[in-house]
Design goal:
The chain is α+β, with helices and mostly antiparallel strands. Helices cover about 40% and strands about 15% of the residues. It has helices spanning about 10-25, 30-55, 70-90, 90-105, 105-120, 135-155, 255-260, 265-270; strands at about 1-5, 160-165, 175-185, 190-195, 200-205, 220-225, 230-235, 240-245, 275. The longest helix is centred in the N-terminal third of the chain and has 25 residues, at about 30-55. About 35% of the residues are buried.
């Protein structure tokens, strides 16, 4: 059995790491600079949530993170978030933020509820030739980036359950894992999966595909690029999916969510070699 770890939300660490990596990796500087704008908003929103929430219970009665949204609490901050993206975001994303902002509160509520209920749970639609269609990535970005601190806040109030070590989806919100994380333990590292939405971590078997459950070691390979010695790309020959893993035994200063954004060459390598990420990050890098 294993346990789910309630990850400590430290937005200041995320902001500082993004600034450092932007100076280190010029090819990721624009993305990380914009991410800092997003994370600064997320931090302020997260810190305001206890006051905004008031005395009502934070944890949903049935323990389901994706229970009904507290929409009265969300609409005004979402308007502010759309304005931030409209001012600071790249062209297409800024245009999408402006378009949605102009639609008004009713459309904001629909967009947030749609993502909250189905966001990372629904598989992409299929085209006629069997290829996955793009699930409106710009609109998904806006909802996912805004709701992430809201989800992190709720989860921080929930007690951790005991879990099997082969759970391939987040036990809190049923989202796919974004990353693997190796945390120091004894003379080695213990493997966790990192949720792509609510940022929780849960313990996971070392030799096991986080997508299809393949357990044969000869079908599971690990690749490390010289440019990112503290990152691993764990691949599965059975399902052709890959999981990017941040090895904190090699760099204890890494912030998994942020380091992942900077690793653009690893995405290019995976694509060239026919591997697909289990779940892309917020910026699809």
């Amino acid at each position: 059995m294993s346990f789910l770890a309630t990850a400590r939300v430290n937005y200041q660490a995320r902001l500082q790491r993004a600034e450092l990596l932007a100076s280190r990796y010029s090819f990721a500087a624009d993305i990380l600079t914009f991410y800092r704008q997003v994370a600064a908003f997320q931090r302020e929103f997260y810190e305001q949530l206890p006051k905004r929430w008031g005395k009502q219970a934070v944890v949903p009665p049935d323990g389901d993170l994706r229970a009904q949204l507290n929409l009265p609490l969300l609409l005004e901050p979402f308007r502010d978030f759309l304005s931030v993206v409209e001012r600071r975001g790249p062209g297409p994303l800024a245009a999408q933020a402006r378009h949605l902002r102009e639609k008004g509160a009713t459309r904001w509520a629909e967009a947030l509820e749609e993502f909250w209920k189905t966001g990372l749970l629904e598989a992409p639609a299929q085209s006629g030739n069997g290829e996955a269609l793009d699930p409106e990535p710009l609109r998904e970005f806006l909802a996912r980036a805004f709701l992430q601190p809201y989800a992190e806040f709720i989860v921080s109030a929930m007690l951790p359950p005991v879990l099997p070590m082969t759970l391939c989806r987040c036990p809190r919100c049923n989202s796919l894992p974004l990353l693997g994380v190796l945390r120091p333990e004894g003379d080695g590292g213990k493997r966790y999966l990192y949720c792509s939405f609510c940022s929780q971590e849960w313990e996971f078997r070392r030799i096991f595909c986080a997508h299809c459950g393949e357990g044969q070691e000869q079908k599971l390979a690990v690749y490390v690029a010289e440019q990112f010695p503290h990152m691993r790309v764990e691949t599965c020959e059975s399902c052709r999916h890959c999981l990017r893993t941040i090895d904190l035994t090699k760099d204890g200063n890494a912030v998994p969510l942020v380091d992942d954004l900077a690793a653009i060459p690893l995405s290019l390598w995976a694509q060239e070699n026919g591997y697909k990420r289990i779940q892309e990050n917020l910026f699809r890098t």
